[in-house]
Structures are given as structure tokens and as C-alpha cells.
């Protein structure tokens, strides 16, 4: 990703100034890797450094409301296992310091970046905008459920 | 993916994971991702395409083994349900 342009930082700061109300906690699960070498699957992490820049971009846009915790899964695999994080980079979005239940696995670029911004804003405002009927239906869930959505940058 | 995130915000039982499909080819192959958005519930049932809220919620409940009154719209333009 390289350096994030200053005008993008300014835009995000202005947006968060208007739209964030409550606290948001981000957890970045990462491990040391290389953004330059092509490594075999499971070795290193080609996008972890970019994901770190992205997470820091979000935190720095509203440091009074957004906090960031970085977990190196190579040093703390038990934490990743406990938080049910399968791979890196993963950015978890939550309202408190516990692992958020909204996760972005991989570098959220393209169409996923607006979804990440949207997630931060919705968590901050506790604003899911689901219908009353949907909430009734979701109330039927008595066990944890995982909803994985595969997406691509374009 | 926004709907999944909103559901995770509304229900403490739901964990929403947006996966960058190109970055995790093995995972994409495991779940036979051919188009996006491709949604997988509890690593079993899957559907392809963007669904209206009502149908998305119903599909997630169905994937989680919860009986639903109405099945997701069967004739949606890009929707296929598989388990």
C-alpha cells in the first residue's frame, strides 16, 4: 500500500469527527512477514504490514475514540486460538477491548475498505439498522454462528 | 458483507468474517468460491449473491439449523442455496 496520502487521512478524520460517537476497539492479528518476497502459503505474511498501516490509519483518524491492539500470532498463538482467528492479517472490530465479532481477514481494499469504515462507524454508534422482524428472527439463535463472506477487491 | 456485519452487531451469537478471497486461495477453494459475495454459514451451507435483508437473515438461520417460516427467495437473480 505504501504511504497513505495525507488527503485520505484528512478525509477520514473529518468523517470520523462527524460520525463516531462511542468507543471502537480494533484488534489486528498479525505476524512478521515480508511484503517483498513471494513465500510459500503459510509462511510469512505478505499483507500484514499494509494491514497494520490501515489499522493505524483508522486509529489515528480518531485516537480519542478508536483504540488498537496488535496481536502477533507467532508469539501468542493461544490468543489467536481463543479469539477464533484462523489466519492473518485479521482486523477485528468491537466496542470494547474484547475481540470484536466483526472481522476482516486479509487486506480490506477495494469494496472491502468502505465496509471496514462502515463497520467502525456502526460499532461506534451501535447502529445495526436491522428491521424489528430480523431482530426477532436472530433472537432464535441459541448457539454461536459464523457467517463468512468471501469478497474480492473489485 | 455489510449485512453480516450488522447482524454481528445486533446478535452476540454471530461472528462475521469478511474474507479477501484472492488472498486465501486454499480457503476459497475449500468452500468452492466461484463468485462473490459468497456467504458460508458455520462452514457448511452457502449461498452466492447479495440477498435482501429478510432473505439473508433467513438463509443464515437456516444454515445455523434454525427452522424458518419462509425460505429465502428461490428465484433471486444471482442466488443459489447449497448445503
Q: So what's the overall shape of chain B? A: globular
Give the tally of structural domains of chain B: 1
| Overall pLDDT confidence of chain A | 91
Question: Beta-strand level of the residues of chain A, as a percent range?
Answer: 15-25%
SS elements, strand count of chain B: 4
Order of helices and strands of chain B: HEHEEHE
What characteristic shape of chain A results from the CA principal axes? Answer: globular
Count of alpha/pi helices of chain A = 5
Radius of gyration of chain B, whole Å: 12 Å
* pLDDT < 50 stretches of chain A: none
How far is it from the N-terminal to the C-terminal residue of chain B, by CA?
20 Å
User: What is the topology, as strand order, of the major beta sheet of chain A?
Assistant: 2-1-3-4
User: How far is the N terminus from the C terminus of chain A?
Assistant: 16 Å
Summed over residues and divided by their number, the pLDDT of chain B gives a mean of 86
- What is the helical fraction of chain A, as a range of percent? 25-40%
Number of strands of chain A: 5
- Summarize the amount of helix of chain B as a percent range: 25-40%
| Radius of gyration of chain A, CA atoms, in whole angstroms | 16 Å
Short description:
Chain A has 154 residues and is an alpha+beta fold. Chain A contains five helices and five strands; from the N terminus they run H-E-H-E-H-E-E-H-H-E. The two termini of chain A are 16 Å apart.
Describe this structure as you would to a colleague:
The complex is a heterodimer of chains A (154) and B (83). Chain A is of the alpha+beta class. Chain A has one domain (6-138): Glutaredoxin, CATH 3.40.30. Chain A has five helices and five strands. Chain A has helices spanning 6-19, 48-61, 77-82, 112-125, 132-138; strands at 24-30, 66-72, 90-94, 102-105, 145-151. A four-stranded mixed β-sheet of chain A has the order 2-1-3-4. In chain A, helix 1 packs across helix 2. The longest helix of chain A is centred in the first third of the chain and has 14 residues, at 6-19. Chain A starts with 5 loop residues before the first helix and ends with a strand. The model of chain A has no long low-confidence stretch (mean pLDDT 91). By secondary structure, chain B is of the alpha+beta class. Chain B has one domain. Chain B has three helices and four strands, in the order αβαββαβ. Chain B has a three-stranded antiparallel β-sheet with strand order 2-3-4. Classes of the chains: A alpha+beta (154), B alpha+beta (83). Chains A and B meet through strand 4, helix 4, helix 5 and strand 5 of A and helix 1, strand 1, helix 2, strand 2 and helix 3 of B. Strand 5 of chain A pairs parallel with strand 1 of chain B, so a sheet runs across the interface.
